[in-house]
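Q: Got a minute? One more chain.
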Amino acid sequence: MALGLPAVAEASFDLEMGNVRPVRAECVDARHVFVTGLARAGTTLVMRTLHETGAFRSLTYRDMPFVLMPNTWRRMSSRFNKSEKAAERAHGDGVLVDFDSPEALEEVFWRVFAGDAYIRGDRLVPHEPDAELLDRFRDYVGLILAQEQEGAPRRYLSKNNNSVLRIRALNQAFPNALIVVPFREPLQQARSLMQQHERFRAMHAADGFSRKYMTWLVHHEFGSDHRPFVFHEAEKNGLAHANIDTLDYWLQVWSNTYRHVLANAPEDTFFLSYDQMTRAPQSVLARLWRAAGLDDGSALPVAGIRAAPTVTDAPRSEALAEALGIHAQLAARAGSPGT
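A: Always. Here it is, folded:
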């Protein structure tokens, strides 16, 4: 009911707005961080590494299912809160989660208030929210930050792959925010996407609720309700004629996404190479810390950063050649370690 019925979600947001005063003045000008890009590029790793600093507030699993009224739900649910031992998430990639793990839940806001504008039956398209909706989103972020404890974080941290659909609007809503775009060598990222698609397709066949849950959260990156980002009609036609069970399909998804990001990201966007980060985590994180306005001291959380397995046996193709050309542009934007 909380996630599947838009009327319930809208009512929960109205209830929250009636009971809680959102942080607004300092919120609009703060150095928030929005991590976005394509799945399987280390977006979760980057978000969780930043979250460990304690400088940010993010939505967590404790905010489920009433993610549009975080303060009201926190008070209501505090009576039956419990602890849970961290367990591996559904992706099977070794990432452990518990109730207090930050997660990409803000997309519920955009689905409830503007879903028809960008969610299609077979794809997700660019989203240009109007001024009224952007102002409502500022209120939503202000509600997430409106904790009563003294010294509570007043900076928002988001990891939302769908933010690439509205990357310019986010910059308009929060002009001082930092947008971080992790990317990965395209063949490795495409292979990981295809593996997750196979994994979640099997999971959804066995468990219909897991499919509904991902649809409610607008997580269409893979699985039986996969809906790729499509920024132009030509991309739609190209993907329609590609075999989803091949690397070329996922390489097309990769190229379409990062080509759009390169053309639309704000000038000060922080492009972060996952491969570079796994090779030289100290220097890459130091640069990220400086860009985010954090203390870039020696105690950077590099221990959990590990390189993922690589694929080397894929045949060359036009799709791979195109992706490698775009990857070179991303790498140029990311710079060299230590710069």
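A: The CA atoms of residues 2 and 181 lie 31 Å apart.
Q: Perfect, thanks.
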